[in-house]
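Troubleshooting log. The previous run stalled partway through. Resubmitting the same three chains, unchanged.
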Amino acid sequence: MLPYSPIIVWLMPLVAAFLMPLAALNRKVRDVFPVVVGFASAVFAVSMIPDVLRGAPYAHPEISWIRIPGIIEARVGALADPLSVFMVTVVSCIGALILLYSMGYMANEKGKTRYWFFMLLFIGSMSGLVITDNFLTLYIFWEMVGLCSYALIGFWYDRPEARKAGMKAFLVTRVGDVFLLAGIIFIYLNVGSFSYSAVESSLSILKPLPAILATVPLLLLIGAIGKSAQLPLHVWLPDAMEGPTPVSALIHAATMVNAGVYLMARTHLIYSALSPGVWLNALIWVGAITALLTATMALASVDIKRVLAYSTISQIGLMMLALGLGAGSGFVFVSQFHLMSHAIFKALLFLCVGVLVHSMGTRDMRQMGGLRKVAPITFIACVIGMLALSGIPPLNGFWSKEFIFDAAMKTGNYLVPIFFVLTLAVTMAYSWRLVILTFLGEKSDYAKNVHVHEPKVMIIPLIILSAFTFVTGFWGPNFAKFMGVPLEFHVEPLTLMLSTVAFLAGGVSLYFVYVRRSPSPEYFGRGFAGSVQKLLANGYYFDRVYNAIFVNGLTAGIQKFRKTHPGILNYNILLIIGGLSALVIMFLLVGGL
Amino acid sequence: MMTLDVSLIGSFALIAVGLFCLATNRNMIMMVIGVEIMMNGSILALVGLAASPTGLLDPLPQSLAIMAIAIGGSVAAVGLVMITQVYRHYKTLDVRELKKLRL
Amino acid sequence: MKLDSLTAAGTVLTAVLIGIFAAMVGRIFPFQVFGSPPEAFGPSVLGAKIGLYLWNFRFWDLTVVAFILFFSALGCIAMLREEGESR
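Second attempt completed without errors. Output:
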């Protein structure tokens, strides 16, 4: 590994972000500098892989940050163990490719310095998040990632929807972050240290401790739910599609939403030690229900990026499901493998969609159609991505989903495979619906007047990512060796048969509705099916309920509170006298006078 | 009764009168007068606390008190000038009319 | 002085405050326990040092007072100018 890699891999993008105003003095340097930094940090990340393959002990540079003897001593550092190095590689490689893509996508935008600053800051903080070795800096980087997400979603700040979406993302993840902070503080109060190794080695003392410590897994889970957009805190991700497409690809598909899954994988030992039955079940059901419900929401969406957003939430639900299926590093490996496959094919899909959105200027699928002739490379890349998403062999989506399915069947839980099969069927349906509506069929009137162009800078990442979807599926055994897990995998005929049933169910119904048009899609707009469609299109009314309680309800409450401020000076003096009297009374009753 | 008791009770009486004046008057000039009374009360407390049972007096609080009186006078002056400005703008001396900065 | 609700409330509250203070005085009269500081609060070395310094170098607080008076006079003159007057 290159010297100081665990530190440079996150420090370099952070420093480069603050050097952006200098680089912005020259227009050409401004666009090339971030891409160069991105690729350099990817090189540093990949260079750590051979060292991890050599086994423990792992590189662990650390310094003593806060030192008040007797009160607190916090050592912070970077830990290069398999999980961290894997996540850092995913983050920096996909980040570098997306930075390259942004050169083409944001070519004619104003405010590019701000964009590059936040993208570099994001890549630096995300790398720091996954490679740090204690909860304190994890939380700091967690918050920085949330800040970059807010700034990048609201990049086009003159659009009111973008501003609202940015605020919504920040506030909803904030709810999760508060619980995460409470969990971290509980851990510190009981263990006395922030670092992961100290927590793991003291788990044997933690077990007989009181019930308040048993809430720590719950608090961490709520933090992960907020950041990874699971039910019920998923409402920010579909609206976050107001940001530029590279932002959606990087933050909301490949990296930031994986921070919650990373946290669950990292604290896996805490879960399995403290009443495993409750918390592992909680993980399973949060994952399974989210996966199914958000997959159905994707079916009724007409915004091309919203479909992919719901798909992201659904796939992350599958990752959480994999983590909850059992204790031990085998299950961590399964979920991380799916994380890698998902990061690659979801980034690929977002980048393809970005080419279309960039040229056509609209995200509405009803105004696109028949674009396969004018955007052939994008069409092929999108088909490859959708094949991976629906889990068709031999692409990487198939292998990762088979691992999860296999684990689900082996643990003997009978309800979970049913959810899994249903999710597979719906995934098949919505993914090919997107391809049919956008690329096949006739060109819509709007699309006839628009010239679709595919710049080279935007095509190269597509090709690279498509190649990776083919290759990484077969890396399963090597990856298992990397994580230090003994893996014997053979394809069970039962799971294969159930998967095929799911594919057929989704594919055949899609064929009948969209290709042969009998029953036509308009049939589903009326009657009972129409009300179901309205329910799905409104996202099961989660948004409406949250708005009514937290936005309108809170505003009404505050307007009533406003009546206590009449604005008259005499009234304020009365309050001063009242407060003074209260203090003196307290003094008399309680104090030692 | 020692000097300290008298001066502290007197100081509190002055502050109470000043607070009453601030809390009940509508006229802004009366409010400035109330602030002046309260200032006198607090300076009295300052001087009273300098006393010691044997009758010796710490000279520092006395000199500080004289300077505080001077500053209190200038505070009253600035306050009255501000009232003049407010009168020029709002044409009223009633403090209950000034509600524009209401929350 | 018109007797409206705020005035009445102000009068009542001030009377309450005076009553509470009277109760406090009745409880801890006389105040001598605070009359000799070294007994009640312990010797305050820092306070004594500050007092000695300020007494020996009285020009410091005189300077501060002069500053405050000068600039408040300046501010009053500035505020008292009518609009449209030539400076």
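Takeaways: The interface with chain B takes residues 1-2, 6-7, 9-11, 13-14, 17-18, 21, 25, 29-32, 34-36, 51, 54-55, 58, 61-62, 64-65, 68-69, 72-73, 75-76, 79-80 of chain C (CB under 8 Å). DSSP finds four helices and no strands in chain C.
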